[in-house]
TrEMBL record:
Pathway: Lipid metabolism; fatty acid beta-oxidation. Gene3D superfamilies: 2-enoyl-CoA Hydratase, Chain A, domain 1, 6.10.250.170. Keywords: Acetylation, Fatty acid metabolism, Isomerase, Lipid metabolism, Mitochondrion, Transit peptide. This is Enoyl-CoA delta isomerase 1, mitochondrial. The gene is Eci1_0. It comes from Pseudolycoriella hygida.
Length: 306
């Protein structure tokens, strides 16, 4: 199966022996099972995803690039259902070996307002566990995807919204919006996987400052610290710029690219894989603190009064 896929996606001949050696070297290097190796082979077929009301996936047949649009009005609050839809969409993309994905929003001025505060306020433990586990799944799948990713940030991206964007490899943002990880301003502690994405995007020094202060940056300031890569005037332009970034990989071996990405991100992914339950427990015990609940409740009221 593995060898058949190699044959159909490489344009040069490799003897059976060479292929076995190559597979062994790659597999050993990253301690992967063959099943995972097969999943990282280059793009072979494209698909039109069945429409999901919360996440729309539109794959361009020519370029093989998928535009993944979050569609939970009014602000793409990240609820359990939205995370489930994203998790499913990421599985579909992985299984269909697309050439790249662009994450964006259908809300006119908001990329995502982060975690749905209704999930955090007076939570039911069973639902919350499912919510948090699916949140972890989405990060593992997005940050660790075999295909390259970019975010067209067409609106505000606070907290979890910023987190989704920095889990991608490239970010293009429209002007006059805010982006950042403002968790500490809500009295909540940034979880382990969020810190990993931030450190992978800006310098350790900037990550520490941004996370401890809970700073929300303007588009221009975000560019200055490297939190985003480019500014584009409209959403359409932002998507175009993301496509240009992803098109650069047409000249790069898919196998070499995906393995290199994976090896650079492996440590962060394993860190969460190895402590998912503990991550939930830390998060849960902090979240149900009366002072944290009060802060979240007050914050929700202040948003409604606006
Ligand atoms: C270790 C322990 C723990 C650890 C916890 C670890 C957390 C992990 C990391 C992630 C944490 C988070 O994401 S916490 C979420 C943090 N999010 C934020 O702080 C963003 C809050 N929202 C905003 O700042 C603004 O809404 C913004 C996005 C800029 C858009 O402004 P607008 O003027 O366009 O819109 P608004 O009028 O404010 O909002 C429209 C409606 O949407 C609602 N709304 C806005 N944001 C919402 C949200 N996140 N969840 C639910 N509902 C929201 C408003 O109340 C309004 O409701 P109605 O009045 O009824 O219409």
């Amino acid at each position: 199966m593995l060898l058949t896929l190699f044959e159909s996606h490489t344009h040069f001949f490799l003897s059976m022996f060479q292929k076995m050696i190559l597979t062994k070297i790659i597999s050993n290097t990253l301690s992967l099972h063959k099943k995972q190796l097969i999943e990282w082979l280059p793009a072979v077929r494209y698909f039109s995803s069945p429409t999901n009301p919360l996440v729309n996936v539109d794959v361009n047949d020519k370029s093989g690039i998928a535009v993944v649009t979050m569609n939970r009005k009014p602000v793409n609050g990240l609820s359990l259902e939205l995370f489930e839809a994203m998790s499913k969409a990421l599985d579909d993309l992985e299984n269909n070996r697309i050439r790249g994905a662009i994450l964006t929003s259908s809300c006119p001025t908001v990329f995502s307002a982060g975690l749905d505060l209704n999930e955090l306020y007076q939570p039911d433990k069973k639902r919350f566990k499912a919510f948090w586990t699916t949140f972890q799944d989405v990060w593992l799948k997005l940050y660790g995807s075999s295909f390259p990713t970019a975010a067209a940030i067409n609106g505000h991206a606070p907290a979890g919204g910023c987190f989704l964007a920095i889990s991608c490899e490239y970010r293009v943002m429209c002007p006059d919006y805010k982006i950042g990880l403002n968790e500490t301003r809500l009295g909540i502690i940034a979880p382990i996987f969020l810190r990993a994405s931030m450190r992978n995007t800006v310098s350790n020094r900037e990550a520490e400052k941004a996370l401890t202060l809970g700073t929300l940056y303007s588009t221009e300031d975000a560019l200055k610290i490297g939190l985003i890569d480019e500014i584009a005037i409209y959403k359409v332009k932002a998507i175009e710029r993301c496509e240009n970034f992803l098109a650069q990989f047409n000249n790069v071996s898919s196998i070499a690219r995906s393995f290199t990405k994976r090896s650079l991100r492996q440590k962060d992914l394993e860190e969460l894989e190895n402590c998912r339950e503990e991550d939930f427990n830390i998060f849960w015990s902090n979240l149900i603190e009366p002072s944290v609940q009060k802060q979240i409740g007050d914050y929700m009221q202040s948003l409604k009064k606006k």
